[in-house]
Specification:
- The chain is mainly alpha-helical.
- It folds into two domains: 3-241, no CATH class; 265-400, no CATH class.
- 43% of the residues lie in helices and 5% in strands.
- The protein has helices at 25-33, 50-56, 67-84, 92-98, 110-118, 127-139, 147-153, 158-166, 169-178, 185-202, 211-224, 234-241, 265-270, 277-290, 296-317, 321-324; strands at 340-341, 350-351, 358-362, 367-370, 375-377, 397-400.
- The strands form two sheets. It has a four-stranded antiparallel beta sheet with strand order 5-4-3-6, with no helix packed on it. Strands 1-2 form a two-stranded antiparallel ribbon.
- A hairpin with an 8-residue loop joins strand 1 (340-341) and strand 2.
- It is globular.
């Protein structure tokens, strides 16, 4: 097994903020009843020095069978630790959180590659070598990235197989015995990969996983993955069949997304993590006013349209502070009303509105019109963020906001 075959992905997975479907009051009560494990500030492996971490590679279970693989792992781990030493912190975990690689939206390997290239170290700074070094640091429990980072960056079979062989081979073997033979190979890998993510993010072995850890993973998947993580519940069944959960634990997580209970108006909006506070408050106030006349399904759909398809997309594609404040008639705009904003990217042209009284979103023309002749042209890629209607062309939507 070569180092190039054991790696995290070259590019981060696309992240779509569709909002957590597991945001109901019933699910929150379940999280309080079964809390997850907290990641400590420091532990023995992350507090070790760089020579101590490298010395572990020469001893089982981290020692590789082949000499070339061992050298590649040592090189990748050593270079990655040298780069992490340039960031503040007393432990490797603290330095990891301080470095740009911890950003789940970024390609983590670009930082150390550029740093090594500046120092003329190009022979040992190949992408695969650094990725193999990170895989070893994860298996050695030196670093514990959060679940969002793992879901968006760590994919493939080799890293999961490497973790199972070096962290808890007996625990993964017990899971293999409990595996339903009727499951397809993709479902088997998915379940074991989810267990491996919990071991990386929380530490310990398979039998140290608790119900709260599983609930936290499902909540993050529902928030991060484009399809809300539908069908990714087999891992919980495997862990429960090991007998490591208490008797009052949920028998399954298969339908927990459907029976999570209703969320408050604030919860429906806050699931999208809007950056602009005044806009968030405006949407909450508007939904609260409309709530008595709507059923919960319509309220949820309207909150998704306003919070996700409209404002979250603006914040994602056009993070300029002028755009963030353009529906806030209480805030003073950075330019005079009616003046064109010249600082926007070429794909967007914006005009600051006076009041957010009327808004129309038109997907076909990729624009948002506020009042008359006040248009914000959206990027062409934004049209794919709104789900298409089956069997008919996408119609124009009209949304009336309270003045």
């Amino acid at each position: 097994m070569t180092a190039s075959r054991v790696h995290a992905p070259d590019r981060p997975a696309p992240i779509r903020h569709y909002g957590a479907s597991l945001s109901g009051e019933a699910f929150k009560a379940l999280r309080v009843r079964f809390p997850g494990r907290d990641v400590p500030v420091a532990w023995a492996a992350t507090a070790a020095s760089r020579p101590q971490v490298l010395a572990r590679l020469d001893r089982p279970p981290l020692r590789a069978g082949g000499l070339s693989t061992l050298q590649a792992r040592r090189t990748g781990t050593d270079k990655l630790l040298q780069w992490l030493e340039t960031f503040p912190g007393e432990t490797w975990q603290q330095r990891w959180r301080a470095c740009p690689a911890g950003d789940r939206r970024a390609d983590w390997v670009e930082g150390p590659l550029a740093w090594l290239a500046e120092r003329g170290d190009r022979a040992s700074s190949r992408r695969g070598v650094l990725q193999g070094g990170l895989a070893i640091l994860l298996c050695a429990d030196v670093l514990r990235p959060d679940l969002e980072w793992l879901i968006s960056h760590v994919r493939g079979r080799r890293w999961r197989e490497l973790l199972a062989a070096h962290r808890d081979p007996e625990g993964f073997a017990a899971l293999e015995l409990k595996m339903d033979l009727s499951l397809c190979e993709k479902a088997r890998h998915q379940a074991l990969a989810q267990v491996a993510m919990l071991l990386i993010a929380k530490g310990g072995g398979v039998r140290d996983i608790c119900v709260g850890d599983c609930l936290e993973l499902r909540e993050v998947e529902a928030r991060v993955l484009a399809n809300g993580g539908i069908g990714r519940t087999q891992f919980y069944t495997l862990l429960r069949e090991l007998g490591i959960f208490p008797g009052d634990a949920p028998s399954s997580l298969a339908r927990i997304g459907r029976f999570t209970g209703q969320s408050s108006v604030e919860g429906l909006v806050d699931r999208y993590a809007l950056q602009c506070g005044p806009v968030r408050d405006l949407i909450v106030d508007y939904l609260s006013e409309r709530q008595p006349a709507l059923d919960y399904s319509s309220l949820d759909s309207l909150s998704r349209t306003l919070g996700l398809y409209f404002w979250k997309n603006l914040e994602t594609h056009h993070p300029d502070p002028v755009i963030r404040a353009y529906v806030n008639h209480h805030a003073r705009p950075a330019v005079q009303p009616g003046k064109e904003i010249r600082c926007m990217p070429p794909a967007a042209a914006a005009i600051v509105p006076v009041q957010p009284e009327r808004l129309r979103a038109d997907r076909r023309h990729r624009r948002i019109e506020v009042q008359q002749h006040q248009v914000i042209m959206l990027k062409p890629g934004l049209v794919t963020d709104m789900p298409p209607r089956r069997g008919q062309p996408p119609p124009s939507r009209e949304m009336l906001l309270a003045p």
